[in-house]
Structures are given as C-alpha cells and as structure tokens.
Amino acid sequence: MSKPKKAIFYAILAAIVVVALEIGASAFLYAVNKDRIAALPGPPSEPAILLALRTGLSWLLPGAFPDPATYRRMTRLPAGFFAEDAEQGYRANPGQYIFRYSGMRQGKVEHLDAVVTINPDGTRFTGNAPADAARRIVVLGDSYVFGDGVNDQQTFAFLLQTEFPGTVIHLHALAGYSWANALVTMQRIKDQIRPGDVVVLGYAQYYKERHVAAPARLRSIRDWMAATFPEVELEPKDRVIRARLDTSNRLALDTIPMHCKFDPAYCASPEPAPDYVDRVSSELLRAIAATTPEKILLLHMFGAKNDPVLQDLPGNVEIVAATPQDFTYVMQDNIMGLDDHGGPYWHYAMYSRLKPVIAARR
C-alpha cells in the first residue's frame, strides 16, 4: 500500500474510532443524566468524550479530580423564600433576598450573590413605576423569566420598565412555573387588565412536562434537590400544579406532591404520551388567551420552531422569536459558570426582542 493510501486509511480509521468513542460517551452520559435532560436549556458545550472522561475520573478519583458540579450550590438567604399556595402549589414570600450561587473554579470554591426583591403582591421588583401608569405589562413564566441568577436591575422585565417609564411591569414568574401557573395568575388578575395592556408569556419546550407534572419532571426535581439543596428537609406539603384533560376532554388543574419520596409509585409510572402532553399544553394556551382580549406576546425562549404547541395559535397570541437560534450572536450566557440560567446578556437579548414589539403597540 502506498504512503498516501496508508495516510487516508489511518485517517478514516481514526475518524471511525473518534465517532465510536463519541457515541459511546453520549450513551454513558445519557444513562447518567437521563432524568435531567428535559430540564436543560440546550445541548452541552463540550464534546461527550471530554464530559464522560471528567465524570468517570471524578467517580474513580474524587480527591484528585473533583467534579465541579458537586460544588455547585444555590442558597436563598434568609430562609423562607417559598410559601404554600393552594392553587399554584407554591409562591414567593415578600421581602429582599440574596440568591447565592457557589461553585469551583480552578480548584477554588467561590460564590456569586444576586439581590432578589419580592413585592407585597408576590411579584419581583422591576423598578419604580408611576402610580398612575397608563398601561401595564404582565410578564409570566419560569425561573428564566423571573431572572434566577441576576440582580433585580438586570432582568429583562426591569429593562422594559426602564424603557417604558409610563408603564408598570408586573413580573409574575417563579422557578418551576409553567403555563398552568400562568393560567392561575391570569384568572386572579384578569379584572385588572385594561384595554391596551400587554401580556408577555414565556415558553420553552421543557414547559410541557411541567404542564402535566410528568414523572420525569418529578424525578428531575428529586435529583436537583439532592445535588443543589442537600441540607433541605423535604416535606409532604410541597406541591406542584398539574394540568390534565378530564373524562370529557376538558382542562382541569390540581396539585400533587412535589417530591418522589411521598408518592414513589407516581414517579415510577409511565410517561404521558407526547400527543397528550401537546394537547394539554395547547388547551392551557387557549385558556390563558381566553382570560383577556388584549395582546399576548408568546416569548419563545428555547425549543423547535415546529413545536405542535406553537401551531394554530389563538387570535390574540403573537410569537416573539427569542431562541438562541434566532440571534446572529452568542447570547446564551450563564451565571459566571455557577448556574445554567441566563445571565445579563441573555436578559438583554430577551429585552431587545420584546422592546420593538411593545413599542409598536403604544
């Protein structure tokens, strides 16, 4: 065999080996993290081989190769941030808090603090608004929309308040919330919404398993609590909201235990069919849209464009495309590598997409 042919042969062989190793590493990582995949905002930023090697070494030689993920902690100071809510499952207590994110960088444990202020009505502080505001913007969503990891003044809701000083922004969002929580909120405040007001409704593809409180969702909560809040004692009063279709195919809401510890059979039960989950999600959107004739801006943060839930939208719902693929630059930052939520650049990106759409509705 000539030298050029040998070179080509070995190059092809090396490529096959690398691909095989990547596939094997991907399978290993899937087995280790399968219950948390749906909660992740996007694909990993490193090759599967590197991630698998790091995971394996941290298991075999934890002293020499500590897993940075094991040092990642999130602490809310003071304690008592969450309170029970019969309809929502839980809500935020009013007050000022520090969200502390800890992690390891270059072998040293460090932390970052974010100031979080909860208003008396349970919304997050978004800046000073006029008492006689001509318009209100209601913002609904999960931890990304709430702004986990960033200070009050860095959320996209705060940026909107600054841009539209004659408007009052109400940030009704919280970690773990979804459209089921948004529906409860809209039913509570619908009489406060006036002509010309705007609703911003966050959405990501991972919301769907939250809508139906899928067993995989509860297992991911179990694993996340064990990794992030190992010192917290789980209580049976902790609950999450669930949307479902009753025997007449009508939308119904209830709450179920949040922790697998208190209903292990449910956590081990089969996952609902994707078609059913899409139907429940679509019914939730229709129910939210029915609470107001005003414009609802559906802020699409993560997920595919051909998501069935984003088809055949109610007449007063308009999609604002804001997934990472909708930007020409890298906008998916994180909390200094200490948390997976969007940081200041991500919030500015959301603001930049909402600003012109809201301005056009003045």
Low-pLDDT residue spans: 38-42
* Major β-sheet profile: 5 strands, parallel
The total count of helices amounts to: 10
Q: How big is the Rg?
A: 22 Å
Highest-level CATH class of the largest domain: Alpha Beta
CATH topology of the largest domain: Rossmann fold
Overall geometry comes to: globular
In terms of structural class, how would the helical and strand content be classed? Answer: alpha/beta
The main sheet orders its strands as 7-6-8-11-12
CATH superfamily of the largest domain: SGNH hydrolase
CATH architecture of the largest domain: 3-Layer(aba) Sandwich
How many structural units, i.e. domains?
2
Q: Into which percent range does the helicity of residues fall?
A: 25-40%
Mean pLDDT: 89
Distance between the termini: 75 Å
Q: Roughly what fraction of the amino acids lie in strands?
A: 15-25%
Order of helices and strands: HHEEEEEEHHEHEHHEEHHEEH
Number of strands: 12
Describe the 3D structure.
The chain is of the alpha/beta class. The protein has ten helices and twelve strands. The N and C termini lie far apart (75 Å).
